Amino acid sequence: xxxxxxxxxxxxxxxxxxxxxxxxxxxxxxxxxxxxxxxxxxxxxxxxxxxxxxxxxxxxxxxxxxxxxxxxxxxxxxxxxxxxxxxxxxxxxxxxxxxxxxxxxxxxxxxxxxxxxxxxxxxxxxxxxxxxxxxxxxxxxxxxxxxxxxxxxxxxxxxxxxxxxxxxxxxxxxxxxxxxxxxxxxxxxxxxxxxxxxxxxxxxxxxxx
Length: 209
Hints:
The chain has three domains: 40 residues, Homeodomain-like (Arc Repressor Mutant, subunit A, Orthogonal Bundle), CATH 1.10.10.60; 95 residues; 43 residues, no CATH class. The chain is 68% helix and 0% strand.
């Protein structure tokens, strides 16, 4: 029995049933130990949550300080989105928990941007904007009725089953569904690349200015 094992089991339980399904008593039972024995390894529920957030954040590769900043930020954004999709419960916790892993992430991102010539203020602006977009997109993606591939067509088709009502009451949404969302190959997740590229291009213009 180790702290790492307890944290990993807690992450697995949250992945399977959501963060609200987790309790110290349930975790101890899954580990095959008495609840009081668990407290030898994690001090409290808060300590456990810190460990869980740190464990998940550590799955996101750190950008190298001397890497081209746009490439590094694009890769980190994609990696972060992937990790948040695998552990959607962490989205609501990631900004409220200060762990060694989150500090390492912020430090590495700041180092990459500063090495690229960003001022301290500009680096802070970029970090806030990028994380807000990634976390917000991941939250929206987790909330939408999409399958593992990001396909939203099933839900859209259900809505379009009321085609007459849609065309009359919400003509612009009906047009978007028919001509875009219901087309073969559409997946909501593809919107991520468009948005992150737009943000990075905007940051680059601000940096030059």
